[in-house]
Structures are given as structure tokens and as C-alpha cells.
Amino acid sequence: MQSCPEYRPGLPEVNDNVSHDHPLKEFVILLSGIIAFLLLAVWSLGLFVDWAAGFISPQMEAVIFSSMQVSGAAIFKQQEDDPRRVELQRLVDELGRCHDVGYPLQVNMAQSQQANAFAFPGGRIIVLEGLLKKVHSENGLVFVLAHEMAHFKNRDHLQGMGRGLVMTALSALLTGAGSDITKLIAPALGVGQAQYSQDRETLADRLALESLHCLYGHVGGASEFFEAMQEEDGEQGGGLGRYFSSHPAAVQRINALHQLAERSGFVVKETASLSTILAPSASHE
């Protein structure tokens, strides 16, 4: 009679169900995978948004955004009867003869000390009155207007809005708004979006330079606004901050414009003064 082998319980020498890697290494691998997946998702959806924006006609866009009012907030109080708005509209109409952006554009003034302008969906260019204190020539102002017109031509305003919505929705859907994971991966996603925005700004600068040359026969005043902002902001835009900024640093834009003008054979001549209507001394405070 044979005896049964004695049962001796114990752990196997090798357990494939248990990881032998350091927990920190596993966390890094997992986090890298999540970031890679989200970057791919944002990139793919961004391309889809760019494609879809091409199917929104200027007329359809005007209807969609007609109910959105720029006024209401204190800094965006419109000034329909402001003579400066009429003069700005004249400049935009003249630029339209150099480059047809495909939009019936309307200029609005907004009360703000910030020096800026932006393309608002529906074919509206919003000029913050602080801009008139930073440019000293008509050429410098026209370059800024031409830059905003280029955003309409390239559909940057729709694509930027769509990409922002996609990124916010995707982040909230996968990780929950305000979660710790969202806060951890947001900078990585922000770098990709910032680089995309900077590329679009560079394209708009290039078209604005061509428009300026078309209207005046030279590109004097093209970098005037950026030089004013560089003087005001100093070293802003340097360091790691430039990777998260939606706009290239002023010094980069100035250098890029000078190089493009040289390659294109554009000359620089004396600029024209701002009209008395647009000069800061005539501004409505």
C-alpha cells in the first residue's frame, strides 16, 4: 500500500499575478500611457474640429453667433456711434481689397485699457481702445487689423474655440472636472494646444505682412505693436512660460517679421501718422 504525499501549503516561487516592479515605476508607466492616449485623442479630435470648421460658412457662422452679445460685460461695452469705429471700419474695408477673407467684417470698439484686438465669431473684429495708445502710425494699426482678418480667413477663431471645448470636455469626461489627475495632466495637454495656437499666430502675422505691403507698397510699421509690447512686458514670454503661452513672444514675432520681409523683398519706408480721429489725444476717455 502506497502512502499519499503529505500536503504542505505555501506560496509559489514565481507568481505571475504579482508585479515585481517598483510601485513608482508602475505609476510612471501608467501616467505616461494616460498622457500619451490623451495627447493622441486631443490631436485627433483637433484635426476633426479643423475639418468641421471648414463646413461652417460665414453666413451660417453669423446666424449661429448672432445672439451672442459682446456688450454686457463692462470692458466690452460697445460704442456703435464712436467715430473711431467708423474710421477703423474704413481701414478694414480697404484691407479687404487686398485680401478677400470671405467674411462681411464689422469692427467694434470696446472700452478697455488693454492694448489688444481679437476676432470674434460672426465676423466681428473687437478693438480694445488701449490699442490706440500703443501704435503710433496708421501702418502699425493696419497690421494689427490685418492680423485679425487673417484669423477669419484661416478660420482660427472657430478652430481655437472648438479645440478648447474638446479639450475641456475630454478632460472632464475621463477624469472628472477638477480631479487631481486632471490637474496633473493638464500642463502636458496645454503645451500641445499652446504650440498649435502659436503656429496659427505666426501664419496670421505672415498674411498681415503681405496685406500691409499690398496696401502701402512697403511694410513699415509691421512690428510697431510688438515693439511696444516688448518694451512694456520686458522679459515676459521667456523661460518655460513660452511653452504654455498661446502667443509667441514679442521678440520672436519681431524677428520673424523682419526675416520674412527680407526673404520676400519687402522694403521698409516711412509710415503714415494716425488720423486725428484715432490719435490718443482725440480718444474718448
What features would you describe in this structure?
By secondary structure, the protein is mainly alpha-helical. 54% of the residues lie in helices and 5% in strands. A three-stranded mixed beta sheet has the order 1-3-2, with helices on one face. Strand 2 and strand 3 (124-128) form a beta hairpin. It is elongated and about 115 Å long. Mean pLDDT is 79; it is low at 71-75.
Task: Provide keyphrases for this structure.
54% helix; 285 residues; three-stranded mixed β-sheet; mainly alpha; 9 helices; 5% strand; single chain
Biggest sheet: strands side by side, in what order? Answer: 1-3-2
Backbone shape: elongated
Q: Give the helix tally.
A: 9
The whole-number mean of residue pLDDT values reads 79
In whole angstroms, the N-to-C terminal distance is 112 Å
Question: TL;DR?
Answer:
The chain crosses the membrane at residues 27-49. With 285 residues, the chain is mainly alpha-helical.
Question: How do the strands and helices of this protein lay out in sequence?
Answer:
Layout: H1 23-53, H2 58-65, H3 83-96, E1 106-110, E2 117-120, E3 124-128, H4 138-153, H5 156-175, H6 180-216, H7 224-233, H8 241-244, H9 250-264
Parallel strand pairs: 1-3
Antiparallel strand pairs: 2-3
Helix pairs in contact: 1-5, 1-6, 4-6, 5-6, 6-9, 7-9
